[in-house]
Amino acid sequence: MSTLRIVLVDDHPIVRSGFRQLLELEPGWTVIAEVGSAQELAAWMLQSTCDVLVLDLSLPDGDGLVMLRHLLAQRPDLAIVVLTMHDGALYVQDAITAGARGYVTKSSAPDELVDAIRAVGRGETYLGTDVRDYDGAVAADSEGALPELTSREAQVFLLLARGHSVARVAATIGINAKTAYAHRTNIYAKLRLGSDHELRLLAMRRGLIGRA
């Protein structure tokens, strides 16, 4: 039996330790590294590789979705399972669109992560039971919540609402900064907003992001 090599990326050591113990109960599975930040992950990936990477979206020094896109640009065949506290439909959509093969929330039963890794190891996609209903309906949900905006403007809106700078928005969705600023200007005008703070408050009221 070949060994399945797993890397855990989460900024809480106690979380990593608990999941490591769980995963290594599975025959042939081994956690070859635990990583606590985006910087550590980038350095580790320069020298090593794995079969499955379990990635938290909330890293202390970077956005997990940005890191996910960066990793898959370098290694398109890498199987990434998102393990996160975020259960909103838009987070699920962003992660799967970016190329994640699995999405499990931290409020799920621990065995769900095992099921997710087993599925992606077979080349399948896995959504946790508490986010499975979002599959195939997420885009419609986001458009319904932001009817005033085009699809691209809605995408920019959501990234700004999650705290991204305009430069980070541009890098995340592959547009230049000038275009990103133009989208933000249009969003402000259409929604009668005066700042990114007002934008985030609106996103909370419409249920697009959680309350801080």
UniProtKB/TrEMBL annotation:
Can you give the residue ranges of the HTH luxR-type domain? 142-207
Q: Does the keyword DNA-binding apply?
A: yes
Positions modified as 4-aspartylphosphate? 56
**Which SUPFAM superfamilies is this protein grouped with?**
C-terminal effector domain of the bipartite response regulators, CheY-like
Check the record and name the InterPro entries matching this protein. CheY-like_superfamily, NreC/VraR/RcsB-like_REC, Sig_transdc_resp-reg_C-effctor, Sig_transdc_resp-reg_receiver, Tscrpt_reg_LuxR_C, WalR-like
Keywords annotated in UniProt: DNA-binding, Phosphoprotein
**Record-annotated Response regulatory domain positions:** 5-121
Record's PROSITE patterns?
Answer: HTH_LUXR_2 (PS50043), RESPONSE_REGULATORY (PS50110)
Q: What is this protein called?
A: Response regulator
Q: Which organism is it from?
A: Luteimonas notoginsengisoli
